[in-house]
Amino acid sequence: MFILKNIGIDSSHENTIYIREDSPISHSEGFKVLTRVSVHFNGRHIIATLNTVESDLLGEGEAGLSEYAMQRLQVHEGDIITIKHLQPLASLGYVRAKIYGKELGEEAFQAIIRDVVDGLYSNIELAAFVTACADDLNLNEIIYLTKAMIATGQRIHWSKDIVLDKHCVGGVPGNRTTPIVVSIVAAAGLIIPKTSSKAITSPAGTADMLETITTVDLSLEKMEEVVERENGCLAWGGAVRLSPADDLLIYIEKALDIDSEGQMVASVLSKKAAAGSTHVVIDIPYGKTAKVRSHEEALKLQYYFQAVGEAIGLKTDILLSDGSQPVGRGIGPALEALDVLRVLKNEPDAPADLRHNAVTIAGKLLETAGQCAPGEGAALADSYITSGQAYKKLVAICTAQGGFREPVTGKHTFAVTAGKDGTVQEIDNRKLARIAKLAGAPKSPGAGILFDAPLGRTVKKGDVLFTIYAETKGQLAYAREYADTVDHLIIIT
Amino acid sequence: MFILKNIGIDSSHENTIYIREDSPISHSEGFKVLTRVSVHFNGRHIIATLNTVESDLLGEGEAGLSEYAMQRLQVHEGDIITIKHLQPLASLGYVRAKIYGKELGEEAFQAIIRDVVDGLYSNIELAAFVTACADDLNLNEIIYLTKAMIATGQRIHWSKDIVLDKHCVGGVPGNRTTPIVVSIVAAAGLIIPKTSSKAITSPAGTADMLETITTVDLSLEKMEEVVERENGCLAWGGAVRLSPADDLLIYIEKALDIDSEGQMVASVLSKKAAAGSTHVVIDIPYGKTAKVRSHEEALKLQYYFQAVGEAIGLKTDILLSDGSQPVGRGIGPALEALDVLRVLKNEPDAPADLRHNAVTIAGKLLETAGQCAPGEGAALADSYITSGQAYKKLVAICTAQGGFREPVTGKHTFAVTAGKDGTVQEIDNRKLARIAKLAGAPKSPGAGILFDAPLGRTVKKGDVLFTIYAETKGQLAYAREYADTVDHLIIIT
Questions:
Q1: Distance from first CA to last CA of chain A, Å, rounded?
Q2: Between A85, A122, A126, which is nearest B478 by CB?
Q3: Using a CB-CB distance cutoff of 8 angstroms, which residues of chain A are in contact with residue B203?
Q4: pLDDT for res B89
């Protein structure tokens, strides 16, 4: 038994418990550093990694927990906690089987995902699971993983026959269609309770972008209230915990800078199903430096999405689109938000490509919902922008979520210019994204890139190709350093 | 710039840096929790994971490092350290390629292993590398990994033409031949600078066992001095850092409870080569519940060992042996040491199987070194035990290493008895090993099992099958609980 002391250490998602190195229990019970132990309070327990402390940070009989662990166990300073040896986790046997390339069954995925959600896995164990699944899930396994994710999260039930949703596979900087699509579809009177993710490996996820104009961490109740009032919402999926397992897996994928096929399909569709959607349009942009690199790869993803969608009872339409260059001008949360607002406000300099992509997706949704004949959706969708109804809907949704505000860009900027005259021939999306990330995106919402050099543009030496935005001088310097030294970023011939 | 405060937190192998949550640098430079940063002092630097602290553990302008990080950076309280953004680690690109099943070249393994040894990988990144390699290294990759491990560690040069070594693949509880083999071979006047590992997934590694009778964490200089004097030594490989990369990889494998083929071959042979060996005998016991489960698997390992050995210029002889049941009576560090001492002392109740295995290996080494004709080695080896020369040599080596002491077993014991009359038909090595581990082995050196039920023994209901030893009551109860409930541990018919 230990008295809990709040030592205020934030070690993010991993539960850590700190006890004194000379603690009698550490000797009598044989606890050693990095042992995984179970920590009990009031009938609840968590699994935590043991760290020992030699300083006077802790007094005799005291123990500390990392902040995440305190929240998970729901304890406060002064509470009496107990530590026990950990029963071996049965589901890790399945993880080991997967490490050795075995195919896992439904029961295995259910067991693993349940333990992950219960916080029983260490970061090392999570990393092993994510890695073992990265290149090696077949269709059945993706279906099992998807079902296990749905089973361990919340699930929303709407009293409507048609509940729409959309998803873009991403990898194309600035392709921020979601707020436009949701505004159009909701303005058309259809239900679209949209949840979005934060960035995994990109400079901005849709939720990161939305956070610069409104509040996105809505509770499930709040989300239902917003949809009830405005037909649609723009929420962060992580906050409603529709797929809590996915949030933890994404955290590991982020740390490893990987984003694998099977886990992506499971992640996307589990969230759609949990959100109560019935019809979903998935946009797969492909191009040499997009996330999906070839038409063949795009077709494979299309197959997975449709087969898994069918297995879980979700009607899934796929759009394959052009991913050869950035969409809009901004890359990074606030800069992308500015593009979205320009489109919805019908401004003359609004990016035409972003508008085109958004009305294509919105049009497909309007067709699926029977609002117009096949082939007429895009024009109908576009009319909601022209009429101003879509912009009005965006502001209304943001207001219902907690308020609408203008995005703020970073105050430190640097313009990268053309080294010679010529025509823009090729653009490396991945390198552009890296610059935006080095500048601080998405953690710093004002950081990113304002892009001025689309494919085919004729430039003169000294013309601005793009401008880097950062919130701090240090980050600006860091991004500049990379931009100055990297090859084949924008090819001019 | 921060003033370093010694906060005395031991987080084992991972470098962690703690700064105040309200530290100005954390805002101006955009550092967030779990960011990987580089920490600089006096021209040296390490990579560390950032944790923030909200309590008064740290004053303004102060930062803390975990103990491992303080050692790696060679800093003390009061030193002025600086924190910088981390340049992206190029070698992680190779790790990602491996995650997606690509074959890696020599350069990739060199780059990864160099960064691992330099402490640049987080636990999540290490876990991803270990997992990605677990089931997926071809022969070339194993050779590259082995060479990279040799290149990043120390290497000993002996002025002898023949330097012997032995290794047992393990997985058979109690099969502690090393101290016997080394004693015989050194007594015969041959050079055998043996380094051993601590347990990865077993209840005792040879180094764990040796630690109960002498000092095993020898420096390289001390090891050379012992071999100079006594022809052989019994050192812990981790202390001499012959393959520092391997120590870190093994730490992750241990956490995941996996021990994969390619990494095992690289681990074993890199250490033999680094230790300056020229001829090595590798014992591969196989059996249904041993680490190597079938003759086929044993042959595959034999192929890998010989091919990699040849590639790095090491003469490698393989022995395939019986791994169907525990060897000797003890399982666990001190209990296994007692078996070894009984054999070397020629005691009447000494385990005959252990003696037989040891003289087989020692005999093969004597033959390889040209001490006798092929086929005569085992008898010659055995004569060194009978004459007492081998025991004398063991004590001399231990004395040279820092002193010889008798092993001490745990004082809490519990006897598991037969539930019915019959004959012992089958033994599950893995489950026996698990009981010994639950009792505290290898961390608690006196913990483990004393085994009384070899295959074929006739037992009566109530006869003792084995006795569990533990150093604490809690661990004894934990091991008993598992032994009481597990099925198919020892099958009596």
A1: 72
A2: A85
A3: none
A4: 85
Structure-token match 């010989």, residue found: B306
ipTM for the whole complex: 0.78
Q: What is the pTM of this model?
A: 0.80
Are A335 and A440 part of one and the same domain? no
Mean pLDDT computed over B338-353: 95
Contact of A131 with chain B, judged by CB distance below 8 Å, is answered with: yes
Q: What is the pLDDT of residue A34?
A: 66
Contact A10 B53 (CB under 8 A): yes
Is pLDDT at A24 greater than 80 in this prediction? no
Q: Work out the minimum CA distance from B260 to partner chain A, whole angstroms.
A: 9
What's the CATH number where A62 sits?
Answer: 2.40.40.20
- Does B384 contact A at CB distance below 8 Å? no
CB of B477 within 8 Å of a chain A CB? The answer is no
Report yes or no on B159 lying in a domain: no
Residue A90 burial by CB count (10 A; 0-12/13-18/19+): exposed, middle or buried? exposed
Question: Hey, how many other C-beta atoms are within 10 angstroms of the C-beta on B133?
Answer: 26
Q: Over the stretch A393-438, which tens digit does the pLDDT of each residue have?
A: 999 999 999 999 999 999 999 999 999 999 999 888 888 988 999 8
Residue from B208, B259, B283, B317 carrying the catalytic annotation:
B259
Q: Check if A297 contacts B (Cβ < 8 Å).
A: no
CATH number of the CATH domain containing A112: 1.20.970.10
Give the residue from chain A lying closest to B27, CA to CA: A472
Partner-chain residue, chosen from A11, A53, A258, that has the shortest CB–CB distance to B51:
A11
Count the neighbouring beta carbons within 10 Å of the beta carbon of residue B5: 18
Q: How many angstroms separate the CA atoms of B378 and B443, rounded?
A: 34
Would you state the structure tokens that stand for residue A100, as one six-digit string? 């050795």
Task: Name which residue leads in pLDDT, B259 or B185.
Answer: B185
Say whether both A73 and A112 belong to one domain: no
Q: Which tokens is A233 given? A: 């919402």
Final residue in a domain of this structure, among A85, A108, A137: A85
From A131, A255, A443, residue closest to B32, measured CB to CB: A443
Count Cβ atoms below 10 Å from residue A201 Cβ, excluding itself.
Answer: 19
Residue B42 has pLDDT above 80, yes or no: yes
| Mutate which: A29, A131, A135, A443, vs B, most B CBs within 10 A | A131
Q: Do B128 and A130 touch (CB under 8 A)?
A: yes
**How is residue B111 annotated by DSSP?**
H
Residue B259 annotated to the active site: yes
Residue range(s) defining the domain that contains residue A429: 412-492
pLDDT tens digit sequence for A237-280? 877 777 788 878 888 888 888 888 899 999 999 989 988 999 99
Mean pLDDT across chain A: 90
pLDDT tens column, A53-104: 877 788 888 999 988 889 889 999 999 998 887 777 899 999 999 999 999 9
Q: Which two tokens stand for residue A164?
A: 């729409």
**Tokens at residue A181, please?**
């699509």
Number of domains present in the structure of chain B: 3
> Shortest CB distance from A256 goes to which of B85, B125, B255?
B125
- Spell out which residues of chain B touch residue A28, defining contact as CB-CB under 8 Å: 472, 474
Burial label for B383, CB within 10 Å (0-12, 13-18, 19+), is middle
| Phi and psi angles of residue B108, each rounded to the nearest 5 degrees, phi first | -65, -45
Q: Under 8 Å CB-to-CB from B71, ≥6 apart: which residues?
A: none
Judge if B197 and B285 occupy the same domain: yes
B91, part of any domain: no
- Report if residue A254 sits inside a domain: no
Helices (H), A275-347: 295-311, 333-344
Q: Order of strands across the sheet with A164-168?
A: A164-168, A279-286, A315-322
Residue from A104, A256, A293, A471 to probe the interface with B (highest B Cβ count within 10 Å): A256
Best probe of the B interface among A99, A258, A431, by most B CBs < 10 A, is A99
Residue A417 maps to a domain: yes
